[in-house]
Amino acid sequence: MDAIKTEVYNILENAIRAAIMAGELSITEVPDIPFSPTKTPEHGDIATPIALGLAKQARMAPRKIAEIIVKHIDLEAHPTLHKIDIAGAGFINVHLSNEWLYDTLRTIAAMQSRYGTSDKGAGKHLQIEFVSANPTGPLNIVSGRAAAVGDTLVNLLNTIGYKAIREFYVNDAGGQVERLGESIDVRYRQALGEENLEIPEGGYQGEYLREFAATIVETEGDKCLQLEMDERIAYFRDKGIDHILAQQKASLERFGVSFDVWSSEKAIRDSGKPEEIIERFREKQYLYEAEGATWFRTTDFGDDKDCVVIRSNGEYTYFVPDAAYHRDKFDRGFTTAIDLFGPDHQGHITRLKSFVKALGMPDDWLEISIIQQVNLVDAEGKRQDMSKRSGQFYTLDTLIDELAETVGEQFAVDVARYFFLMRANNTHLDFNMELAITHATENPVFYIQYAHARCCSIFEQGSEQGITPKPIEAVSLKQLTEPMEYELIRKLAEFPAVVLLSAEAREAHRVPHYLHELSGIFHPYYNQHRVLDPSDMEKTHARLTLVQSVQTVLRNGLTLLGISAPVSM
User: Fold this and answer.
1) Which of 15, 164, 191, 298 could form a disulfide with 303 if both were Cys (CB 3.0 to 4.6 A apart)?
2) CA angle 191, 197, 199 (to 5 degrees)
3) Tens digit of pLDDT for each residue in 341-399?
């Protein structure tokens, strides 16, 4: 389709130049020609309002300008074009010949699983950091949404020619993990029978720590009490991080997400890089002392206030290791770093970008997107409590478990991923559990998967009838003459552009929308038109070729989303 658009653009541009040369249009140069696919087939395939845009400069009615432009297009010299007409005040509607539709099917047949790929990224190295949940508790469903979005964006970017990797930044240093150790210490001593103990302020109340402390008692008894308190808390901190991180990895693997790199905040701190960052900022006079702390002049970079980088007790705030970590990313050779942050990190964006700029990285090197809140919605449309469930956090595993009770383990992951991806990630998402567990076609992911399964069933039925699909070179594609067939092929032709736009705009939700629209065309076609007709084998083979193309695009799209393409349902 991109090649077709380029050809049509050149035809229109040459026609305008010819009109200028003939003295019929009094304009000095040809502007950019805007055009887009039309919404209805009767208006052609591509439309442009260029005549309206030229009206003021040419001092002529737009419709007259359109007539002049069209007059200078020789349809016989351009087999791609079927006809051109003028609509309304001067819109030029281009009707393409059917041959380009048939070429689309030939392209899909030739490329198969590669259909939708391109080399736009030219092998550039990109890194996407996502999830990066603190190793202080199980993954919640906002982390699940981030996992689905980040994983799909990597798939999309690699499909268009980038070399993108998935990276998880483990926040295994700082105050939050110290409080984890303190919280486990309390639960451990409670498990040994101590009373009147309270979780420290800012600690972790979750039932999962009671269970973890109980396992420590089972395996180690009370020997940890022999350690000094600071030593014991450090031991529990490290043991807790390892345990929770292993749980998080298992949850992500279950969800179909495997990270290429696991980076450690502790390793960054131990490397000495934060000290190098501070020294560099001092040299550039970005730091000053006030109120017993060290401040960074973020106001020099457009922030509304400066921020503390070293507290009065000498400890770094989290901005310093974060800045060092991003410098580490840059040093590893990534041409772009993309961070997917949770909804509570909005205020962190400007400051982190200030640090990155202060370190000399290009302004456009770091991209940051917010993955917004997820709300569970019940059958009555009421939002459920997201913070606790029977004394536990509502986790990603809990969500998959509840879905699996109704739709099975495989489809539970499919449904969860689709629902997380079906809205733009910068908007709040209401996760409708009632719809998610519905087996009917009202469930959007099943609607798409059922379309793929229907394609498979057609070939299975054909095999039972002794009908084997022919190579596309042996098929008379001109047998495809139904309006719904043209509509299907036009939609199939859009797929590479959808993939490209989704990747470049970092908008993974465009792909599920496209697949739902494609399925919405295929299902009525399946119901209204007979594919296997032994009395007309030429049409049968042409329609089998079309169904194969639909099957290929559905499978390719679902694969990008990390969702299965079942052969039966």
Assistant:
1) 298
2) 95
3) 998 888 789 899 999 999 999 989 999 999 999 988 876 777 765 543 333 568 999 99
Exposure string over 58-85, b if 16+ CB within 10 A, otherwise e: bebebbbbbebbbebbeeeebebbbebe
CATH architecture of 444-561: Orthogonal Bundle (1.10)
Contact between 500 and 506 under an 8 Å Cβ cutoff? The reply is no
State how far the Cα of 323 lies from the Cα of 354, in Å rounded to an integer.
Answer: 9
The dotted CATH code for 2-96 is 3.30.1360.70
Handedness of CA 160, 163, 168, 173 (dihedral sign): negative
Please give the helix or strand (H or E) that residue 168 lies within, else none. Answer: strand 163-170
pLDDT tens figures, 521-562 = 999 999 999 999 999 999 999 999 999 999 999 999 999 999
Distances from the Cα of 119 to the Cα of 91, 158, 160, 343, angstroms: 34, 9, 5, 33
pLDDT at 37 over 90: no
Looking at the chain, the domain(s) classified CATH 3.30.1360.70 span 2-96
Copy the structure tokens of residue 176. 């939050």
Rg (CA), the chain: 30
Round to whole Å and give the CA distance between 46 and 559. Answer: 30
What sign does the dihedral 442-448-451-456 (CA atoms) show? negative
| Cα–Cα nearest to 526, from 453, 439, 468, 474 | 453
> What are 112-170's pLDDT values in tens digits?
999 999 999 999 999 999 999 999 999 999 999 999 999 999 999 999 999 999 999 99
